[in-house]
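Sample entry (403 residues):
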Amino acid sequence: MSRLLIVGGGPFQLDLIHAARRMGLSTVVVDGRAVAPGLAAADHGEVVDIVDGPAVVEVARRHRVAGVVSGASDAALVGVAAVVDALGLPGPSSAVVDRCHDKLVAARAVRAAGLPCPETEPLPEGAPVEAAIAAVGGFPLVVKPASAAGGRGVSLLDGPGGFDGALAKARRHGSGALVQRRVRGRSLGVEAFFWRGAPVEAFVIEDHYARPFVSPVGHGVPAAVEPALAARVRAAVAAWGAALALSDGAANFDLRVEGGVPTLIEVNPRLGGSSISQLIRAGFGADPAAAAIACALGRSPLPHLKRRAQRAVASRLFVGRGRGPVRVQGDPLAPWRGGDTLELVLDVAPGAPAPLAVDEFSLLGRCLVAGPDLAAATRRAADIARAVEAAVTCPEPTGEPRP
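Predicted structure, serialized as tokens:
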């Protein structure tokens, strides 16, 4: 039985483990946390730091894996790329991962190709910030780490108040800080698949927000985009992929549509998080996790990407403000089980911290909901999230949030 290495064993890698099992593969999962749920779900689980390339490569060699893949985690791509380079396997190389991870390098590569991307400037330590702010058009703007994921270290500023705090927050991630023009257009995501350097499928996804959490707390399909815009998005994905040398596998795009023009915010060469794979499978009948695995094994993803149906489905994260051991009142999921609720998961246990966190927020769980239309599915997902979040108490954030 062929073995597949999955780098990262968090909640959003579980779908890859299940897909690999459906495909008749043996799974080897590495994660730096002994309590990561993917380690227990795998055929072979090992506690290994996912950003320690040589250590991940050693596991890959010892298990003689036929492919390597990850989803949701940008940090995991460091280990994935190390294995791709060392063993000559299909997947994103270190050069591609480094290019996409460094948001300044990625923005400059896209703009050099003449493609829409917001103006982005570095904020070096000790240097005045006024020139960089002016270069991106002033406020409103975004302050973010040069390399991070999931909204970590990101601040949205309408004016200069709070700039120093936002800059310190971005720099806590140790990769430097950037300032970027804030694009106020419609937010869409795209889960795209590349094969032999060309895009072969692109699922356009609605993004849903709940401030002050800066990243989407949920997604929905099918996105309400007219055919002309859908065509422009697909053409833009192909052009952005060429500019960044994306080759085989999944790529998750974050974009804004401003004046009818799709503008790239960032792209990561892996499956998206927040239950996006399950969302697409429930909404269209395609299997993104299986498609990503096929690419990792050097096979075409197309058989797994056929759209066999279409129905309205929304996903939603449960997010709590605070970090550390949580208190849970009763069973907050009980009223919402069954019916159009396709997935309902609480990732926290009373007295334990959430397994995933973003700055001062804990990610508590998630749901996936179908409905007669996307608006109805989105409302029900939001109702579930509000009820669950009200029943789970996180410690108030104190001091500086951990990166």
